Amino acid sequence: MPKLAVAMTPERAADVCSAQTKELLEDRFTVTWAAPGQDLAGMAAGADVVLTSWGTPPLAASIWADGDGPKVVAHAAGSVKRLVDPAVFEHGVAVFSAGGRIAWSVGEYCLAAMLTLARRLPQLDDGVRSGAWKQPHLRGHELAGATVGLLGASSTARALITLLAPFGCDVVVYDPYLDADRAAALGVRTGSLEEALGCAFVSLHVPDVPATRGLVSRKHVELIPDGSVIVNSARGPAVDQAALLEHLLAGRLLAALDVYDPEPPSLPADVLASPNLLLTPHIAGDTAEGHLALAGYVMADVLRYLESGQRGPSFVDPASWSIAA
Amino acid sequence: MPKLAVAMTPERAADVCSAQTKELLEDRFTVTWAAPGQDLAGMAAGADVVLTSWGTPPLAASIWADGDGPKVVAHAAGSVKRLVDPAVFEHGVAVFSAGGRIAWSVGEYCLAAMLTLARRLPQLDDGVRSGAWKQPHLRGHELAGATVGLLGASSTARALITLLAPFGCDVVVYDPYLDADRAAALGVRTGSLEEALGCAFVSLHVPDVPATRGLVSRKHVELIPDGSVIVNSARGPAVDQAALLEHLLAGRLLAALDVYDPEPPSLPADVLASPNLLLTPHIAGDTAEGHLALAGYVMADVLRYLESGQRGPSFVDPASWSIAA
């Protein structure tokens, strides 16, 4: 049986690996689980497959220097950019990431944020708690039939598109790598950055790469229509945060921010008191059920790959390295 | 052309009647719009169709006493129970209600409330605003694949079922009037009240009729599993509110309450301070877009009825009067 090194702390293994997946792994591999305090990066040497997650230190390229490193790196977490050096691809290493599974939790967060802000639920809740009843100035809006602009057609965008299906929204996606045919297959249309920003709901789904830093500039924030709802669950540096906060404080826009620049953010008191904001601590991808599914999600693809060379949805395409999250 | 009396204040007409619908009505009827301060109930006499909404006083049965009352009552709002006496059906009057359109806004509210509470967004928002960052004890849950119990298969339940489709939930509906075939057509299954209350998410969709008052008793509240999310957008008296609030204060359950018994509610200070609650002022069915569509929704059916006798989805079936909202 192939050797599997589970290079994550016991606490993390309990977080990302369900009982069912543990059973499957024990059944199909000779598994080494990390002991408390064990050197996690050192576990990769000698294994056929190394299963990693948050907290696993970067895997040094030297592990593969003598041609004896693991053939597969399976990351039961999101981005693999800080985990492996792209040089490992030259050694024929196959890398898998559970980012596609995390994306579902992110999609649910985005829909939650859009609906909650559109209906002014936090403000109405504050009102009831402070003795108010009807507040006609806090009237809600429906999502059904609305225009929704997505920046980026990543896996989180696709999860949100799936969730938006029953709402019959007009979804316009700005992504230089999305062609019209693929957009049509997703049930959306492609558009310019300006078109996407002209929607009643705008959600960011871009990776943190040089091309997306400052993507939404001050000038772009000004293009967003009055009363629109902005959701950023992607990366803080993608938006001119100072400009966005100014427009929020002016009461012109509503926004749900799960990511900031920097993190944790140092937000001024007037921002922290603003009723136009929903602020969360970078948790869009973090749910109990979502995490528990991660090792199973990525290892199902690894098993198929070892049997037949098939590359499932979690396979990290070396050709997309520079534009991936 | 048939005579249409729009028996609502100009403010209400602006709320429920879009410019497009106004044009359609002027095109197909001789329309009388109420002047400010006009006697609204008096407008029905002599009209072929009377279009009503919130604020229209009850239409006295005497309007139909001489056989000359309107043939159609079209209510651009929800329940018609306080508007017309069921005796009007004996005069051959057709009654239409826009409750089915309002149901969509309610469905969006229910989904918003379920997602927001499952992800602990209000508590996480409070945390970020008071200087906290990660709060591992406030971990979110996914809705995907969860068990969802619906009490009542009304139009609001059906709107929510439509919105839940991409989540792949196991939806169990308790409704004595729902048979297994119709449930299967909706993509759900039928179950007992106890089964529906045993779900991770429980949402109420019952009308306020004698049979539903106290439907969820103290004993039933105890059956709801720890950590479940309860949404009541239906009617306050359907639940033993005191029992529910006790379980919420004990931290065992999360709940979104849009309706109360009585309304507005007088909630004790500990309830108003509870982080396990999302409190809104009976607005689940109230959105700008939803309201603006109401006259058009109900009058589209009225036009078909006048032309062909066809009864669209907004037709109020006299046979269902006693169990309708």
Largest interface: A-B, 50 and 50 residues
Percent strand of chain A equals 5-15%
CATH H-level superfamily title of the largest domain in chain A? NAD(P)-binding Rossmann-like Domain
What spatial form of chain A do the alpha-carbon principal axes imply?
elongated
H/E element string of chain A? EHHEEEEHHEHEHEHEHEHEHEHH
The number of helical segments of chain A is 12
Termini of chain A, distance in Å?
A: 33 Å
Largest sheet of chain A: 7 strands, parallel
Can you name the CATH architecture of the largest domain in chain A?
A: 3-Layer(aba) Sandwich
| Average pLDDT level of chain A | 96
Structural class of chain A: alpha/beta
Would you identify the regions of chain A where 5 or more consecutive residues have pLDDT less than 50? none
Q: What is the CATH topology of the largest domain in chain A?
A: Rossmann fold
Share of residues in helices of chain A:
25-40%
Number of strands of chain A: 12
Over the alpha carbons, how many angstroms does the gyration radius of chain A reach?
22 Å
Essential attributes:
homodimer; alpha/beta; Rossmann fold; 2 domains; 5-stranded parallel sheet; 12 helices
Describe the protein.
The structure is a homodimer of 325-residue chains. By secondary structure, the first copy, chain A, is of the alpha/beta class. Chain A has 2 domains: 3-97 and 293-323, Rossmann fold; 102-279, Rossmann fold (3-Layer(aba) Sandwich). Chain A has 12 helices and 12 strands. In chain A, the strands form 2 sheets. The first copy, chain A, has a 7-stranded parallel sheet with strand order 8-7-6-9-10-11-12. In chain A, strand 10 (229-232), helix 9 and strand 11 (254-257) form a beta-alpha-beta unit. In chain A, helix 2 (19-28) packs parallel to helix 12 and helix 3 packs across helix 5. Chains A and B meet through helix 3, helix 4, strand 12 and helix 11 of A and helix 3, helix 4, strand 12 and helix 11 of B.
